[in-house]
Amino acid sequence: MYLDPDVSHAVKILIVGHFGVGKTTCIGALSEIEPLRTEEEITEASVGFDDLSGTPNKTTTTVAMDFGRLSLSESLVLYLFGTPGQERFKEMWEELSRGALGALVLVDPERLDESFPVLDLVERFGLTYAIGVNHFDGTVDYPLDEVHEALNLSPETPVVRCDVRDEQSAAQALITLVKHLMSLLA
């Protein structure tokens, strides 16, 4: 992909994943502006809908989207849109996916089964994606090739380990996606 240095380019990227995987945290770590968050307190209304067993300390949830901005150069700006992770908010996906160039799919290796509905949506909307295996304190660092195989990904789909709380680590996951997108557009 050739980018004319005299022309500004804005690219829409989705940050997606299942409930409680770190999407809001990732955008917060990456955004050069104060991120827009639509976080609300988790209430009793979520009982039976949201499985908090994998995230027992989670007290808020995204109900619409998160938004951040990251300038990669004078001529390339990424607009980061985080989707809600719950099944009941999947209607937001169609709107958010319009115009998106790709998606960084965050997964928790302890809850890979929760990633399949997310991957189905990403593929349904025709988004190119990379996988960011978010590392949580006290969890096993599974080999990336095992995660790749367990998710039944195509051979060219990049998989990278990250800690979305850390700006450098989250940026490396995003760079992996951008490089993947550029290799497909070349």
Automatic annotation (TrEMBL):
Keywords: GTP-binding, Hydrolase, Nucleotide-binding
UniProt cross-references to InterPro entries, sorted A to Z: Gliding_Motility_GTPase (IPR052705), Gpn (IPR004130), P-loop_NTPase (IPR027417)
SUPFAM superfamilies: P-loop containing nucleoside triphosphate hydrolases
Family (UniProt): Belongs to the GPN-loop GTPase family.
The protein's name: ATP/GTP-binding protein
Species for this entry: Streptomyces kunmingensis
